[in-house]
Structures
1.
Amino acid sequence: MDEITTFTTIAALYLLWTSDTRRRVNRRRRFWVHTILRRRTELGEYHRLIQELRLDDGRFQRYFRLNVAQFEDLLARVGARISRQDTNYRRSISAAERLSICLRYLATGDSYRTIANSFRVGVSTVSMIVADVVSAIWDCLVGEFMAVPTTEEWRSIAEGFEERWNFPLCCGAVDGKHVAIQAPANSGSQFFNYKGTFSIVLLAVVDAQYCFRVIDVGGYGRTSDGGILANSAFGRALRSGTLHLPADRPLPGADHRGPQPHVLVADEAFPLRRNLMRPFPGRTLPRDRRIFNYRLSRARLVVENAFGILAAQWRMYRRSLEVRTQVAEKCVKATCVLHNFLRKTTPGTMGNLPACEVEPLPGLGRLAANNAAREAVRVRETFAEYFSAEGAVPWQPSV
């Protein structure tokens, strides 16, 4: 009798559990598509507002950061990668609408829920679209707009720095930018930076026209810029001499100083190397070293300016990214290649750039010391002597 009672009790509990589960499942599945989302093609932002914005190129550009022609060009490049097939149950979201959702996220940094409500799609749909589209943008544009420079291209970059920034044999300016993110789960202090926020690091090499030529994304926020460079593929290539920089050549008008290497310019956070110049450390410096620091900082401003343009254009950099670290890295890479895409497809952005001046450096506090190889020290001394002699510019006496 006890066994029968026990069995009956277990059966009753099982039936109660299964009926409760069915009720919860039915409650979750009450809507195949929510009633608000069903009106996407009537009231969604893409189908109403954006179609009206197409009639006003200026407003369209402020909304997406691309004008109508650039949007269509980008869509033609990535459309095949981001298109999805219709099914018997529903029509897929078009490639143009998927691209619009992604660009709106990059341009504003709004939450997925805000974007979802505007476009009348699901939050999980926005999440998948952003991750897919930023990957497609990077894959489809990187080969044309951010390929690793060849020796000839490095030489062309050096000519640009000499012409615009009065720094010969310079193949780029290097710096790192912290991109704020929400603290990843179980990450400890790896992403916690000196600013008191959590971040990943964008390390970039920028040319004289404010275009990104090499980037490394995903370094831990706690790591210094020098450490990020050392751990990156670019840094390893620079150390091993496999970056295909042009051969050594004399500085303009200074053949007697002998051939000098092509260099990159950086701030005091980076080490001094034969192909990587950083400022002279110290508070009180001889005039030739002050001039060198001034000229180096003037050339190095291009990378700071490029970061400023990037953050002003893609407002996601003004917020803390509330996405997975892998997605944040893809978003950063996509905005960098889009930055180059816009600069090279917008008339006037590549030719008429204003030259920037910087304040003299002697008033700065002591710069950090950094041991360097003798060859690197000799190269920096040669550049310093050159900038005070054959390579002097008219405004230097005030430095």
Note: The longest strand covers residues 170-180.
2.
Amino acid sequence: MARSIAITSVVVVFAILLIVSPHVADALTCGQVTSSISQCLSYAKTGTGMPPSACCSGVKSLNSLAKTSADRQTACKCLKTIAGSVSGLKPAAIAGIPTKCGVSVPFPISTSTDCTK
């Protein structure tokens, strides 16, 4: 009987820990990055005016998704891959998108950015 109570207590404690512990979010993927910034590509080619509102929404979404260092490194690497695969992008236009969208990032937006830091 005592053993049954002990086992039940362990199961209850384990269940409580599962319920109250923070859930680990899935890691950011390149698909999420691409989806978030897809509406920015036309602006990144022209650099004129303001980025479309859908672009800014995507940039804000990506910024909120990339909370951990690992997520920010993934986003950086994916953005560099995208920038290298799309011709006609203007580096100055790309670098200005976060500011024009009201998003503060603590590093320069550039293809020369070291994603490991």
Note: The chain is about 60% helix and 0% strand.
3.
Amino acid sequence: MSFSCRIFNSVMSANGSEAETDSSCDGADGRHASGPVSAKLTVVVGSTHFSEEKMFLVQSCDYFRALYRSGMKECRQEEIHLNGLRARGFLIALAVLRGEKPALDGDDIVEAIECAAFLQAASLTTHLINLIDSDNCLLMFHTAATFGLMDLYHAAALFIRSMYTDLEAEVKKSLPSELISYVESLTPSVFAAVGAHVTCVGDETVHAASRTVCYLDETGNSWKVLTDLPLQASTSMAGVTVLDNKLYIVGGVHGLHKQVVDACFCYDVKDDSWSRISSPAQRRYNFSLVGVGDRLYAVGGEYERTVMSSVEMYDVTTERWEFAAHLPRPAAGAACTKAMSRIFVCLWKPMETTEIYEYISRKDEWRLITTLIRHQSYGHCMVGHRDNLYVMRNGPSDDFLRCLMDCYSLSSGQWSSLPGHFANSKGALFTAVVRGDSVFTLNRSMTQEFAVDSKNWKPRRQMKGFPRSGSVWTFMLQLPDALTLK
């Protein structure tokens, strides 16, 4: 059901409500508190009445969860009044809690932030964070500060800081001094890279000097060393990703026979330190590693030259791996990305069919969302920006040096081809990382920044390429001042 139609089914008059009664008051954990309440609850926001399943609200919002654990008289009432909120904001909250991803304009954003702060609805806060862009980031930041929605406040400030060159004049014109100071106290994310290196032990320490993670100093247009890789770490055919500003390196290979490396590592930029993490149960290499929320997902890959469909997820809180639903078919080195806090994998059927699957975490399943048929020679790269997935590929065999790009809109479910093409003779665009409303691409000759404008990528800057041969992993990291000054 569309968001616009939701209002007709969610909003009801005070006299039209029908509540089913129960003899208990359900708590958030399924236990009961004393006193009779209805299985359905009428929530009054202003003059508008909403009839909702009580357990749905309890499971979705900290406000209702706390209310029904408190034992207060309200948990026995069939009608709850939320004073100070507006009906439109509550309607938006209900839509998001049901799994919808509505686009929001200025007034909607303000009311949604107010509602997210009051209800302490984590999923609504996450949705708002996913919607941050150059047009609404100042509104998001200022409104989140007003209502104390701290996760959104910090995320919007980071976005502004990363786009500060473009936004500085408007920031200083429209924001109060204390908010400007907070933005300027943050360090922007930097474009970082690491080449493909095998483990370095015994007599091989001669290669240790080149085993570094580097970042691009955009002011000086030079690459600088951030940290050395642990000697036992391999980035050759490994899983490499960043989650919560920490760099993870999982698996990889060593030697001509592709011996799997068991050692897995996490680099914390805050402490400038490496630590070991546990290894996946299934040994694998040439797989995709992506992080969403508080979990890493190791997707597909190979073991003993056999392509696999297995998927494992690592909970960074419990520090444990567990298996998730298998891919629809075996895949190695599959293009994988995240967008709108959702995971997508691109499975290619040579020589022309691209299928994009989404991992539905609440159901632990992979769901086909779209298919694209394009003749190509080889290769895929996929990057997510807001609610769009950009798929890059080589052209057909008679013109394979062209990098062609198609865009899939998650909101509309429609494909579109980006105008023109991108030269790919030196590998450009087969690594792409988003920062704010920009995308960074890299090869040995150049680093390019593209401004993402609707369905177009417009070149903004060209900087120094990464002076390493072979495969390269790229990502964004927010570095403390102490690291950039060392």
Note: Residues 1-38, 424-428 have pLDDT under 50 and may be disordered.
